[in-house]
Amino acid sequence: MISVRHLSHRYPGARSAHPALDDVDLAISAGRFCAVIGRNGSGKSTLFRILAGALRPSAGEATIADAPCGSARARAAVGVVFQFPALDAVLTVRENLRLFGRLHGLSGKALAARLDAAVAWTRIGDRLDARVGTLSGGQQRQAELAKCLIPAPPVLLLDEPTTGLDPAGRAAFAETLATLRREAGVTLLMTTHVFEEAEPADDVVVLQSGKVIAADAPRALAARLGTEMIVIGCAEPGRLAARLRTGGLAVRATAADVRIPDLDRGRAVGLVSEILDRHGAEIASIAIKQPTLTDAFLALTGDTP
Fold first, then answer.
1. Is 294 contained in some domain?
2. N or C: which terminus of the chain has fewer CB atoms within 10 Å of its end residue's CB?
């Protein structure tokens, strides 16, 4: 459904030593959910703009539904949800949806049917006659999603769609996407830097400096760090990490803590006791946890929380 081959892009006049995208490959089958994660500047937005047809790549190819991105056929297959809703704040939700439908050539009963169907997938049905400017951020995002569903696209591209939403709004939006995927079979590609939002994805692609540095299921990425890890909070992570390394432990210091990954289940308990005996005076907190996608990202990129 979505195919990217040897995709590269460098912005004219860019001072960066590396391109915005560097030989990126990506394949997403119909009905799957792919999350693209990375820090700001990793290339997520550039990839999104190319897929949405808003930017022509410097090299390589990107297709949706076997059509080049940006072509009429590809645009007809895609609904695009940007970081911030593109709705008229003065108009009501219903008026926005009708206007968008007319722009897609719909009218009369056909438009009414599409509007009802799109609203049914979202949580905006009780606010159709409210002006968009009076809605909360979460409600505006639901209205934006309903707008994108008017043409019934088989593919949804979402660029950090929960930016600015509170936890309740993010959870509601995630549930709506899960329903769409489960009941309508919509193919989803979402960029995000909130890694918890990528946990339900079938596939996660990690971008760094324009390159794909990892691509796998979320659990598989987390499993690279073992079944358990120890996280130690302390005032001087670098100093404590150096001492632990002299004892033969593979550790990584971040700005806030020391992490000991790749532990077999059951080993961590005894190791915690040993560490507290030797370095207890330096430790503010210590915990055993199962690695998450966030932990995997930090280990892959070498970044700190």
1. no
2. C
